[in-house]
Specification:
Layout (H helix, E strand, L loop, with lengths): L1 E5 L3 H10 L4 E6 L2 H10 L1 E5 L2 E5 L2 E4 L9 E4 L6 H11 L6 E4 L6 H5 L6 E7 L2 E6 L2 E6 L3 E7 L3 H8 L7 E3 L3 H22 L5 H4 L1 H18 L4 H14 L6 H7 L6 H14 L5 H13 L1
Parallel strand pairs: 1-2, 1-6, 2-5, 3-10, 6-7, 7-8, 11-12
Antiparallel strand pairs: 3-4, 8-11, 9-10
Helix pairs in contact: 6-8, 6-9, 6-10, 6-11, 6-12, 11-12
Length: 294
């Protein structure tokens, strides 16, 4: 199968590594330095201290023409409006399939604008770190949950059937419930670790940080109307434990002076709180602190 991956961040490169094992993968990126490195040196991947390197077909984003069977959109949420507009302009009339891998909920309305046979959304629960433009570290083995926004999942089943045991896929019936489950994790872990400047596990290990963890979870789950709060809390804690030594993507963005996805995460929570006339003091405080650091 021919697969396009748009985005050369940690998640894009991680998907490129695993899918390139059994499919013809092309990565489309904007950064010319990264592009030249990938073309010259290939993609280096590290898992559990063991490194491997393989050639990877890399192209500039503007070279994408929609010729692949599946196009995976692996850019940050804030890049989605521009990317989707460009895709609509560059597509040569082919009605392909797309998989969106963003945090938050804002990409749904943009995804639905694309003319496509199939539109999928995914929730990535792997830990990944891009240490160099041509190197990705698989820091935590998890799963990718996927659901169909439009069409059926037959195409993704073919990918799942041939996927590495280190890169499994799980199929969800309800895409909203799937994304909300990931949203709660992002709302609690990402802003707290970014503001406190700690690894994920510290949120559970430090009793004072844990109090903030619980209060923020209670606030967010209430605003989202989560029916099974106990189950949701168990899930967030388990993700925190499994990725205990990891630095969240938002913390890394702050440390490296990049824009964060706070608008797609706590920004969404604040919008929902306003609609429902609910107070959100913890979410508002963290949101303002992150925006201030940006």
């Amino acid at each position: 199968m021919k697969i396009a991956i748009i985005g050369g961040g940690a998640i894009g490169l991680l998907f490129a590594h695993y899918l390139n094992e059994n499919h013809e993968v092309r990565v489309y990126i904007r950064n010319s330095t990264q592009l030249q490195k990938l073309r010259k040196k290939g993609l280096t991947t590290e898992r559990k201290g063991i490194r491997s390197n393989a050639p990877l077909k890399a192209f500039h984003f503007k070279e994408w023409k929609g010729e692949e069977d599946l196009t995976i959109i692996a850019v940050k949420q804030y890049s989605i409006p521009e990317v989707v507009k460009d895709l609509m302009e560059m597509n040569t009339g082919k009605c392909g399939s797309y998989l969106f891998l963003q945090n938050g909920m804002g990409h749904l309305k943009w995804a639905e604008m694309l003319e496509a046979e199939n539109i999928y959304v995914g929730s990535v629960e792997h830990g990944a770190l891009k240490s160099e433009p041509d190197t990705v570290l698989h820091t935590g083995i998890g799963v990718t949950k996927v659901a169909a926004l439009k069409g059926d999942v037959e195409l993704l089943l073919k990918i799942s059937d041939s996927a590495s045991c280190y890169f499994p896929f799980i199929f969800a019936e309800n895409h909203i419930e799937m994304l909300i489950e990931k949203l709660i994790v992002n709302c609690v872990i990402n802003p707290l670790t970014a503001v406190l400047r700690v690894r994920n596990g510290e949120l559970l290990a430090n009793k004072y940080y844990y109090q903030l963890f619980l209060r923020l979870f209670d606030e967010v789950s209430g605003i989202l109307g989560i029916p099974d709060k106990a189950g949701a809390l168990t899930h967030v804690k388990s993700v925190c434990e499994e990725t205990g030594m990891n630095r969240s993507s938002m913390l890394k963005d702050i440390e490296e002076g990049r824009e964060t996805e706070i608008d797609a995460i706590l920004g969404y929570i604040l919008e929902e709180a306003e609609k429902k006339k609910m107070s959100a003091p913890y979410s508002e405080s963290l949101y303002c602190q992150i925006k201030g650091r940006e």
